[in-house]
Amino acid sequence: MKLSILGCYSATPRIVAQTTSQVLETRGHVFLIDCGEGTQVQLRKYKIKFNQIKHIFISHLHGDHYFGLIGLISTFNLLTRDTDLHIYGPKGLKEIITLQIKLAKSWTNYKIIFHELCSSSSVLIFEDEKVSVHTIPLDHRIYTNGFIIKEKPFNRKLNINKAESLNIDKAYFRKLKQGEDVVNDKGEIISNKLVTLPGRSPLSYAFCSDTAYCESIIPIIFDVDVLYHESTFLEEHEYLCTKTKHSTAKQAATIALKANAKQLILGHYSTRYGGLEGFKNEASTIFKDVVLSGDGKVFDF
Amino acid sequence: MKLSILGCYSATPRIVAQTTSQVLETRGHVFLIDCGEGTQVQLRKYKIKFNQIKHIFISHLHGDHYFGLIGLISTFNLLTRDTDLHIYGPKGLKEIITLQIKLAKSWTNYKIIFHELCSSSSVLIFEDEKVSVHTIPLDHRIYTNGFIIKEKPFNRKLNINKAESLNIDKAYFRKLKQGEDVVNDKGEIISNKLVTLPGRSPLSYAFCSDTAYCESIIPIIFDVDVLYHESTFLEEHEYLCTKTKHSTAKQAATIALKANAKQLILGHYSTRYGGLEGFKNEASTIFKDVVLSGDGKVFDF
Question: Rounded to an integer, what distance in angstroms lies between the CA atom of residue A264 and that of residue B101?
Answer without folding.
Answer: 32
